Amino acid sequence: MGADKRLDHAFLNAPVLPLLPSSRYVLVSDCHRGCGTNNDNFLKNQNLYFAALQHYYTHGFTYIELGDGDELWENRSFAAIKSIHNNAFWLLSRYYKENRLIMLYGNHDIVKRSPRFTTRHCASYPCSTCQEEELFPNINFYSGVILKNPQSSKEIYLTHGHQADYFNSVLWRTSRFLVRYVWKPLELLGFLDPTSAAKNNTKKKKVERTLTGWASKQECLLITGHTHRPMLDASGTYYNTGSCVHPRCITCVEIEDLHISLVKWTLATHSDLSLYVAREVLAGPVAL
User: Fold this and answer.
1) Global pTM?
2) How do strand 24-28 and strand 249-256 relate by DSSP bridges?
3) Considering its fold, how many domains does the chain have in total?
4) Cis peptide before 18 (omega within 30 of 0)
5) 177: domain CATH number?
6) Which of 57, 77, 153, 180 is paired with 167 by a 20 to 30 Å CA distance?
């Protein structure tokens, strides 16, 4: 099965969500929440992420995570991830209770597509009092989601994007083994995983060309993560949310009032040298 067919399959029977003037969606990808060790790339941005999550919760956004939310290639224990980052899971559980949470899976958390896994691991999490609290009971993790404006032919296709990457989709078990037992220890010595689209520019560009080509053929707007490179070009058919593991910021895509924006959250400094979390629009808003 080629990349185009894998992308087609991602949207087979995909849920369709309304895209209305009143709709508010925030698209986040590649959090890679880990176990709090030196390999936990999310750890340095956890406060930025939580601040952004609070902002979107307060302002009535629906949170859509486009996969690789949790780093389940490097880490075998989802329980340890939930324990370390239980404040984030607490807030995500509030989104879920209000039907404002949509979760997709990527290659690094592809095990979430199994109902057996979600039943065993996603029903609860350890809160700060060390008691188990309800998390995402009966949740479904999707390979793709479609946002559709019922009053026009406009459709936005959302998926992780690993389908364009043969090694990280078809051969994901081999990739997981190499990441977990080869590249994880080598990363501590400064080596980068050459099979990763996020860390290999040649591979990144190849994946982006494949995704752009598919979106052009489908005559739709495609938004993914996977490559970690944020992208929003008003003349294009392919956008990317970026990731939550950039060195000094997190990026995401906002959809509000039928406009789309690429946003960065980072630490900034007041004139008195006190720090605050700042929201910056990198591109847009672009009318849909």
Assistant:
1) 0.91
2) antiparallel
3) 1
4) no
5) 3.60.21.10
6) 77
